[in-house]
């Protein structure tokens, strides 16, 4: 039985992430299971209020899922004590203004990444939240993926020996919108609307790298806009002003080199839409969203280079699949449960606005690197 309820303002619940991952897969799933179990054995239930700009859409969603409250008036929701958490899934451009209001209203805040369009604003949000004493959290969903959880287990067990390098491939073909409709919103391809693959993906890469391998100490990136013209949701042609691919090298604490390609202009020839290969002195691993295969040093083949002879060795066959062993739940939901514990009983949370600001810094410096053609050192960020 639930003993208390936390009210959550879900701003942008009609959007792709807001609806699918945060409302349906997280908050409604948590409500369905009877809330979140706290340390002391009590439960806290969740109750959402949907906020957006289109009343008819909000009503349709609320009716579909048996949600009592929805409104187009964010200020009224923020002024209402029934709602303790403000959650933000808006387009990135609209985020800072809304979060500022939520800080002023004294709400705990949970948000999608990136927390802001500029590092200056992202850091300011972290400082404002700290000064106001409001709890804050930022989505770190990729860390909760089954593949990355298995990778964490391998790292913690010492499987790799000394980790040397990480190479990652993220991406798939996003249709141009003319002969087949695009599978991502068009704002992602307009920098004036907060789009761009660096702004989108580098915040993810920052928390993945710093939580698994070490702080990102420098970045070199080359951004590209390979497809200059796309067609939007209404069939209108527009100029793609944002980068749709980025080729980057990150130097990490401890001398690890990470090289990550991010692209919406690549056709997939790998097992999953994202894949990281980690090479260490004692073993290597290739992980995706779900899968994880390893090759220990004792199982490493000894290839010799001979361009005159076709190589009959099956290199893919040298890898061992790591079993699941655990049931791993949807990562957005798990992180929501952790944030609710953080709000309800002060459980630890290091995925805060400052972590979000580090992600925005990496994106900003990635773009600056691409612009200048230089590698850029990243200072340690503090409040
Ligand atoms: N964690 C992840 O893996 C992940 C993946 C994709 C997107 N995102 C992030 O989630 C956020 C939303 O992305 P999405 O793909 O769901 O976009 P979307 O376009 O599907 O949804 C955006 C939402 O913002 C609202 N909105 C748009 N313009 C607005 C404005 N000017 N004022 C107020 N509201 C406005 C829309 O009504 C909609 O509800 C972005 O910040 C994006 O970076 C995160």
Could you explain how this protein is built, in words?
The radius of gyration is 22 Å and the shape is globular. The strands form 3 sheets. Strands 17-16-15-14-8-13-12-9-18 form a 9-stranded mixed beta sheet. Strands 1, 2, 3, 4, 5, 6 and 7 form a 7-stranded mixed beta sheet that branches. Helices cover about 30% and strands about 25% of the residues. The protein is an alpha/beta fold and about 375 residues long. It has 2 domains: about 5-140 and about 330-350, 3-Layer(aba) Sandwich (Rossmann fold); about 145-325 and about 360-375, Dihydrodipicolinate Reductase, domain 2, CATH 3.30.360. It binds nicotinamide-adenine-dinucleotide (NAD). Nicotinamide-adenine-dinucleotide binds near residues 15, 52, 90 and 91.
């Amino acid at each position: 039985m639930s003993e208390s309820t936390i009210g959550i303002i879900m701003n942008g619940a009609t959007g792709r992430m807001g609806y699918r991952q945060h409302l349906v897969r997280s908050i409604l799933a948590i409500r369905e299971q009877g809330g979140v179990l706290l340390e002391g054995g009590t439960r806290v239930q969740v109750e959402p209020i949907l906020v957006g700009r289109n009343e008819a859409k909000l009503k349709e969603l609320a009716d579909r899922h048996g949600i009592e409250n929805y409104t187009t008036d964010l200020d009224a929701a923020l002024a209402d004590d029934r709602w303790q958490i403000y959650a933000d899934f808006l387009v990135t451009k609209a985020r800072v203004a809304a979060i500022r209001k939520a800080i002023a209203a004294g709400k705990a805040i949970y948000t999608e990444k990136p927390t802001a369009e500029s590092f200056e604003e992202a850091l300011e949000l972290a400082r404002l939240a700290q000064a106001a004493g409001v709890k804050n959290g930022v989505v770190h969903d990729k860390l909760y993926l089954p593949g990355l959880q298995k990778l964490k287990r391998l790292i913690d067990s010492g499987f790799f020996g000394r980790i040397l390098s990480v190479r990652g491939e993220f991406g798939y073909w996003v249709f141009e919108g003319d002969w087949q409709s695009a599978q991502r919103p068009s704002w992602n391809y307009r920098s004036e609307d907060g789009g761009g693959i660096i702004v989108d993906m580098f915040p993810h890469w920052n928390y993945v790298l710093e939580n698994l391998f070490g702080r990102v100490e420098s970045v070199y990136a080359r951004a590209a806009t390979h497809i200059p013209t796309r067609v939007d949701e209404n069939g209108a042609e527009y100029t793609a002003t944002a980068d749709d691919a980025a080729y980057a090298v990150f130097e990490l604490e401890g001398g690890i080199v990470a090289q990550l390609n991010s692209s919406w202009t690549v056709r997939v020839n790998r097992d999953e839409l994202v894949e990281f290969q980690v090479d260490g002195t004692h073993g290597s691993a290739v992980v995706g969203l779900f899968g994880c295969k390893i090759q220990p040093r004792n199982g490493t083949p000894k290839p010799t280079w001979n361009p005159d002879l076709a190589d009959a060795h099956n290199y893919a066959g040298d890898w061992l699949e790591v079993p699941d062993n655990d049931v791993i739940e949807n990562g957005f939901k798990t992180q929501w449960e952790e944030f609710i514990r953080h709000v309800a009983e002060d459980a630890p949370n290091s995925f805060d606005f400052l972590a979000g600001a580090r992600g925005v810094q990496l994106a900003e410096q990635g773009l600056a690197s691409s612009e200048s053609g230089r590698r850029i050192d990243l200072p340690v960020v503090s409040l």
